[in-house]
């Protein structure tokens, strides 16, 4: 027994000596490099945790099971499940940022045909934990792609229109409306009185009727939007009144009871949580709004700053955008739904043309069912191929359509592309879409300017060389004539 006690004491002394040596080494390291000290502390903490886990085998087993379960839940690059973000080139990704970087690197930021973009940003974020962090992440992620000028995108649009004709700017910006009449009802009255397609004054042309029906559909969409906004305003007023009353009651109770500060912090946290939830709900609503309503809202904003002539052209243009979305949208996103197609019809021997016609008839309107993310999917085909041809067809008779902004001429087609450019920026800034479109118009303009400058320089250089060569030729001719005259004199 005495020997065992001596052995244990020796072991303890040795351990103490080792600990002293380690502490001396640690103090030396701390003097030399504080960063390495931090890393060594981290390593020591890890070793201590492993020692503690070895001393508790039951806890160790449960921790191992939890880590294995977490590893099983964790997604990897090779995971074939939940790859819901598809590029038109055939690649699929687990998240929208991964798809975005792929589009930026491989396709210059332009989603190819067949690209499936997320319907809303809520799908990417499994909303657990702090909602304020989620809102900050969303805002910081979207702020990366917002330029400083984008905050006043409509002012930029006005400045662009000023380069065409300053008369497109409204004399007085309609920031405020009659308080007794809701803003959107007043706006609808203005539209019905002023922005009517009867201004074209030619009832014999058939396509005028077509544009009237498209315009009428937007007004019908405005009716629904007006009702919803009025309901929201009334509900918000009620909620604000109830919130004010509850806050007053809480303050009274706190002053009476003189409760500690913990309750106040709890109340503040609850209020902040409600604000965060309201912000998330607003984001969700924006991402789920249909195309018809989004176009109506944009036209509402334009009507506050544009004159009647400018507004007519914008309504015409966005009716054209909406028409192409309804015709090409489902093909662009690759959704071949067989709406209301019964199995009996499929089994029967019907030609393929009849089946496709039946499908197109039974499909709901694209702009009533799809959201802002799907507006930009046809932009390449629309701006490069469809728009020039359709403008050439619709605006062939310039006596009827005396448009100055858009048209089938090359310059006016470029103006139309700019109009869509500002609309796409407005969509992104107002969080209707997660996709930031990058147009190459500015780059192309710079290249054209550089080419023109280089051509001018070449012309100047060429003119200088021509001048020099002409001077040399004149001098040589003069010398030849002089020599000839001298030779003739000598002969005489």
Automatic annotation (TrEMBL):
Residues 230-260 have a biased composition (Basic and acidic residues). This is C2H2-type domain-containing protein. It comes from Pseudocohnilembus persalinus (Ciliate). The keyword S-adenosyl-L-methionine does not apply. Residues 85-112 form the C2H2-type domain. Keywords: Metal-binding, Zinc, Zinc-finger. Residues 1-12, 22-70, 263-275, 450-463 have a biased composition (Low complexity). PROSITE patterns: ZINC_FINGER_C2H2_2. The keyword Metal-binding applies. InterPro entries: Znf_C2H2_type. Transmembrane segments: none annotated. It comes from the Eukaryota. Residues 1-83, 230-275, 450-492 are annotated as: Disordered. Residues 464-479 have a biased composition (Polar residues). One of its GO terms (molecular function) is zinc ion binding.
């Amino acid at each position: 027994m005495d020997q065992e006690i001596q052995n244990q004491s020796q072991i303890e002394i040795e351990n103490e000596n080792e600990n002293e040596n380690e502490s001396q080494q640690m103090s030396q390291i701390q003097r030399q490099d504080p960063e390495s000290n931090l890393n060594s502390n981290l390593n020591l903490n890890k070793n201590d945790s492993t020692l503690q886990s070895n001393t508790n085998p039951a806890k160790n087993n449960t921790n191992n099971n939890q880590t294995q379960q977490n590893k099983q839940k964790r997604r990897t690059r090779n995971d074939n499940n939940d790859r819901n973000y598809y590029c038109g080139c055939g690649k699929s990704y687990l998240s929208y940022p991964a798809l975005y970087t792929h589009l930026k690197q491989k396709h210059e930021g332009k989603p190819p045909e067949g690209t499936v973009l997320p319907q809303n940003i809520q799908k990417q974020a499994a909303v657990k934990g702090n909602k304020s962090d989620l809102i900050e992440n969303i805002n910081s992620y979207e702020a990366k792609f917002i330029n400083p000028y984008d905050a006043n995108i409509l002012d930029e649009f006005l400045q662009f229109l000023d380069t065409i004709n300053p008369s497109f700017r409204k004399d007085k910006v309609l920031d405020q409306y009659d308080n007794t009449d809701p803003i959107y009802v007043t706006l609808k009255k203005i539209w019905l009185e002023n922005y009517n397609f009867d201004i074209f004054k030619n009832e014999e042309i058939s396509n005028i009727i077509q544009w009237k029906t498209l315009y009428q559909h937007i007004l019908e969409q405005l009716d629904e939007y007006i009702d919803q906004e009025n309901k929201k305003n009334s509900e918000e007023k009620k909620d604000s009144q109830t919130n004010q009353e509850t806050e007053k009651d809480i303050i009274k109770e706190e002053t009476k009871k003189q409760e500690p500060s913990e309750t106040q912090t709890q109340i503040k946290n609850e209020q902040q949580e409600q604000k965060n939830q309201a912000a998330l709900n607003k984001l969700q609503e924006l991402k789920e709004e249909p195309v018809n309503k989004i176009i109506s809202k944009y036209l509402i904003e334009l009507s506050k700053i544009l004159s009647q002539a400018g507004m007519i052209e914008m309504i015409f243009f966005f009716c054209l955008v909406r028409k192409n979305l309804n015709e090409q949208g489902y093909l662009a996103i690759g959704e071949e739904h067989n709406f209301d197609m019964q199995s009996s019809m499929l089994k029967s021997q019907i030609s393929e043309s009849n089946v496709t016609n039946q499908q197109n008839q039974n499909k709901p309107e694209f702009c009533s069912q799809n959201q802002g993310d799907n507006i930009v999917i046809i932009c390449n085909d629309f701006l490069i191929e469809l728009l020039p041809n359709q403008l050439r067809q619709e605006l062939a008779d310039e006596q009827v359509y005396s448009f100055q902004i858009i048209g089938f001429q090359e310059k006016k087609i470029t103006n139309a592309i700019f109009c869509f450019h500002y609309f796409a920026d407005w969509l992104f800034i107002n969080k209707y879409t997660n996709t930031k479109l990058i147009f190459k118009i500015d780059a192309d303009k710079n290249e054209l300017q550089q080419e023109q400058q280089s051509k001018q320089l070449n012309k100047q250089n060429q003119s200088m060389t021509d001048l020099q060569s002409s001077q040399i030729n004149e001098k040589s001719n003069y010398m030849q004539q002089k020599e000839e005259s001298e030779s003739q004199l000598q002969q005489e």
